[in-house]
Amino acid sequence: METTRQSKISRLLQKELSEIFLAETRKMPGTLVSVSVVRVSPDLSVAKAYLSIFPSEKAAEILESVRNNAKSIRYDLAARVRFQLRKTPELMFFLDDSLDYIENIDSLLNK
């Protein structure tokens, strides 16, 4: 069960990460990276961010690039939330494939 503090921090991190990815994806036309959910550990030391990437063909390569640049993303995030948080949690990025799953279910139901 998520505490109130965890949910507030996860919403803050989701908002700020979304803005960071929006600024970065402007450099790559035709791609869209959105942060669907952020889950923060109870001790607030780790944040798991689930990314929804469009087009899904580029998802693996973009996710790998994000994971390789996790330290610089955390640095940018820390600069944005430095007045709200004492320590910025370590970031772990995962692919949110729920949209692909929904499309698959829809196509199976339409058959």
What characteristics describe this protein?
3 strands; about 20% strand; single chain; GMP Synthetase, Chain A, domain 3; three-stranded mixed sheet; about 110 residues; alpha+beta
List the helices and strands and how they pair.
Blueprint lengths: L3 H22 L6 E9 L5 E9 L4 H10 L1 H11 L9 E6 L2 H13 L1
Helix pairs in contact: 1-3
At the first level of CATH, the class is Alpha Beta
The largest β sheet comes out as: 3 strands, mixed
Question: Mean of the pLDDT scores?
Answer: 90
Give the strand order of the largest sheet, numbering strands 1, 2, ... along the chain: 1-2-3
Using only CA atoms, what is the Rg?
15 Å
Main structural class: alpha+beta
Unreliable spans: none
Q: How much helical structure, as a percent, in the residues?
A: 40-55%
As a percent range, the share of strand residues is 15-25%
Secondary structure: number of strands: 3
**Discrete helix count:** 4
CATH architecture: 2-Layer Sandwich
Distance between the termini: 39 Å
Overall tally of domains: 1
Which of globular, elongated, flat, extended, rod-shaped describes the shape? globular
Order of secondary-structure elements? HEEHHEH
CATH superfamily: K homology (KH) domain
**CATH fold name:** GMP Synthetase, Chain A, domain 3
